[in-house]
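Hey, I'm writing a tutorial for new members on how sequence and structure tokens pair up, and I'd like a real worked example in the thread rather than a made-up one. If someone can provide the structure for the chain below, I'll link this post from the tutorial.
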Amino acid sequence: KQVEAMTLELASVVDEHKVKLNESYHSLQVDMAKLEQSHGEEREVLRKQVEDLQDQVINANIELLQKQEKIAGLVVEIEASQAAVANLADIPALEDRLANMATLNNELQASADKHSEVVATLEDIVANLKGDVSTLKAQLESQTVSYQNKVVQVQEMQDAHSALELALQTMQSKNEVLQESLQSTNAHCATVEAKVGALLESLAEKDGQIVQLQEELQTAELTNAQTQAGLDDAVAERTKALAEEAKRMGLVNEELRVGVDKSNAMWREKVDSIVASRDAEVAALAGQIQALELKIQNMEERNSNGGATSPDEVRSLNAQLGTLQNELDAQLEEKEALYDKIDELEKAALCNVQNQHDHVRMLQRQWDMEKATLTDRLGVQRDRINKLELVKMTKGHLEVFEKLKLNIKKKTDEVAALQQQLQASRNDDGRKVADAKLVRPLNAEVKLKLHTTQNEFQIKTSEVASLQNAIVQYEGHIDTLENQIRVHGTSSTEIDDLRRHVADLERLVQSQSQQLRGHQDNIQSLTQLRDQLAQQVAELQQLVRDKDVQLKRCEDDAASKQQEWQVANEDLHEKFHADLRYLEKENLELHLELKQTKRLMSFTGKGIASPPLPRARTTQIQHGRGVVEAIRVLPTRNFRGNLHRWALSVVVLCRDVDHRHEKVGAVHGKRSNLASVDLDVILDKVPYGFAKVDFHAASLRS
């Protein structure tokens, strides 16, 4: 009942914490919405003020332009008065004009004073705006700090809620374990007193279960030792890492503070220099105005005295007016540049505020992520601790079960002995009384053993309580670590510095990651090229190996064929010489016939009157493979036709010989000199150089 009451109380507390957490979360959301609305309204107000200032500057510039136009009109009037200075009769008109000029000068001076007042008011407005910007910055920083504190509080409440839930779960598990243990003890007592026989039957099954539980217990002890060592190592490493991070962040904060001080000093010097230059310009304008007033007074005195102005004085006045006009233009340009600088400074301040706000958000997200990871780790460690508690509790129960098993074995032995005694002496009443006396001390012993088991159970519960105390100590250590982490993240200035440093580091990391990606892409492309080249080299090597094998085969074939062709070449050489001798004989016969024809033609003078004696013979020219062609010289009346056929036979012979020598040269890798030498001999011996024979001879030589 107490446990149930405690569980109900814990459930109610958990519900209350949930409600509080939801309310705080909604309130934080409302505060954030209000802050965003207020910032938006303030930005709109500042934007409207800047627009009003810009309108005022535009109006001032318009007034200055109007004054410049008036000055230009005065210059025109002075130039017109220069023409009238020569006539002394126009002195009264000039005096009136000088009076008008004096009044215009007074008006210009008054307008210049108004303009200087407007400039002073604008400067005051700009200073007020700067102060408002600084106050807004301070408010924003304070709001960010308060928001961070609220976030920390919410996280603390969430941690407390999770701790309460874990405590409730542990209490429930402990309650269940206690109830199960009580039920098991009651069941065991009842079975010991009433159902000894049933226990004897279940002993065999329980022996196997006990062996399995012992093995599981050993594995659990090993895992417990490993997890405990891992927890100790993790806690030590985390403490070291936090100390190193604290030192590093302190150094970084000091460096960033020095940089901020330097930048503030630079900006202050720039602002002081701008203010000094503007003061000097205002003083110079005042001096120029005083000089103009003195000059105007002198001119009035001269006019009052009635002295005539010389043309040189008029020219000097015109020159002075031109210089003054140029100076006014330069001053107006400088003022416009100053207003542009003021606008740029305001824009830079707004950009800095936005960047700081973004930095705050980024760092807040990073801290949330880190805290989430830490909470996850703490949850994992707490789960491990709960598992270790359960393992140790099961170990205690196993020890109790082993003791009970031994007691049950003893009791079963005693019961068996008693049963034997009962079976031996059922009809003996005296034995029954003795058995009853024996059973009573046995029952007393059983009761004592039950008391001892209860005491052992109490001892195990005390051990569990000690383990819970150790777990509480670990949780306290973890809470101290969390507090250290929170202490390191409280100061807003350090957070700003850390944000800037983190932004710089992120930029460096991004640039380095881009460079690494480029290097990785280059490396991948190079590896792909290397693989492709390796494949190509392997293919080429395989081709070279195949070509080497083919070359070896070709060399072997060429060597065998070379021997064959050498034998055939020698045969052809011999046959060619035989054919050549035969052709020489035919050539001599043809020369003789030609001489006869020449003699006959010299006698007749009209061609061939009577042909030579007909001659019919059949020749067979032997070549490498046998008889190729038989050139038959038929008897005819036309000696020129016979000569033409002889030439064709010579050409056929030469072509066949040259073709065979080309084959032999292709096999041996060089050209034989037989064709070149013997064909030249043959062609030199051809009579009277017929056209076709000469043509084929040239082709054969080429």
